Amino acid sequence: MKAIVVTDEAAGTAGMTLVERPEPAPAINDVVVQVHASGFVPTEMEWPSTWTDRLGRDRTPSIPGHELAGVVSALGYGATGLSVGQRVFGLTDWTRDGTLAEYVAVEARNLAPLPGDVDFTVGASLPISGLTAWQGLFEHGRLRAGQSVLVHGAAGAVGSMVTQLAREFGAYVIGTGRAADRQRALDFGAHEFVDLGNEALEDVGGVDLVFDVIGGDIGKRSAGLIRAGGTLVSVVGPPEVRPADALTIDFVVTSDRGQLGEIVQRVRDGRLRTNIGNVAGLDDAVAALNPTERITGKTIISARS
Ligand SMILES: NC(=O)c1ccc[n+]([C@@H]2O[C@H](COP(=O)([O-])OP(=O)(O)OC[C@H]3O[C@@H](n4cnc5c(N)ncnc54)[C@H](OP(=O)(O)O)[C@@H]3O)[C@@H](O)[C@H]2O)c1
To answer: CA 175 to CA 218: how far, in whole Å?
Structure first.
């Protein structure tokens, strides 16, 4: 099968190459999925799990990409809940070969049915950003209606999902990002927008929840904005500065079939809009994942035309 592999950590996404690889065999509880579309998170080349397995052993050449939409082509020993020929979408294990390929082996429990009226490209754009937003707001952030949420990177992949879900849930949403992102963030449902390059973040005043996808100096300054009893949710590692009287959570997204169902239902009924910036074929994936100009939204690699 065709697949994108990486072997050189220092080369980053520029080191991606399109090669022929053997089709994966399903392990216990796995299914094999014929990948129709795959997502990719730009920071994957910095994740240790891209380079080593769970025992810390080198696993290169590794296939990046950990979210997919496709069709089940084989069932492994003991796999239940899915059938051959079924449309599925979901999140694959960080420490195994991923989805920038024609086929991938993945534990059945990490997938959910993809309704027939949702395109594969849309399905592949939802798992990481949708589940991260859902879990950060509702599981870890324990958002309640009427609370205020500061959403960093509100026009980006995760931030646009956070903005829409928080707004639907009855929160007051303040989005942040680059100057060029203002209208997109407002279109996704932010009530206000802070241009981090030109406006003072501190003018936001107090908020109940900060959802941080940026970290660094922005993360440090955000800690001081959280009201007593509020929550700082980070998806970019443990915050360097913790708020004094608020809960601090950093987490890595996990797959959840029920939550994937909630997310895709919202896409079908129009409550949630996905955020795709570019779609390219597997043959053009290396160029598409090394863009020469800024792309807002996810790049989706379509394995089948
Ligand atoms: N822990 C987890 O489970 C988890 C899950 C998903 C994602 N993540 C992490 O979350 C981060 C965001 O992922 P994503 O897919 O949403 O990326 P993305 O689509 O690139 O969104 C990030 C947004 O924030 C903006 N931004 C970044 N730095 C900024 C700054 N200093 N000032 C103003 N705007 C800034 C970006 O603009 P530019 O494009 O111009 O920089 C972009 O619009 C990544 O680090 C990713 O690894 C973690």
So the answer is: 13
* Amino acid symbol at 191: H
Which CATH number among 3.40.30.10, 3.90.180.10, 1.10.8.60, 2.30.42.10 corresponds to the domain 2-126+274-302? 3.90.180.10
| Domain residue ranges in the chain | 2-126+274-302, 129-250
pLDDT tens for the chain, 305 residues long, are: 999 999 999 999 999 999 999 999 999 999 999 999 999 999 999 999 999 999 999 999 999 999 999 999 999 999 999 999 999 999 999 999 999 999 999 999 999 999 999 999 999 999 999 999 999 999 999 999 999 999 999 999 999 999 999 999 999 999 999 999 999 999 999 999 999 999 999 999 999 999 999 999 999 999 999 999 999 999 999 999 999 899 999 999 999 999 999 999 999 999 999 999 999 999 999 999 999 999 999 999 998 65
Query: Ligand 1 test: best mutation among 49, 91, 137, 178, most atoms within 8 Å of CB?
Result: 178
Write out the E strands in 139-206. Answer: 148-151, 172-177, 192-195
- Give 156 Cα–ligand 1 centroid separation in angstroms: 6
CA distance 275 to 40: 13
Cα distance from N-terminal residue to C-terminal residue, the chain:
15
Per CATH, the number for 129-250 is 3.40.50.720
Distance 52 CA to ligand 1 centre (A): 24
Q: Is there an atom of ligand 1 within 6 Å of 177 CB? A: yes
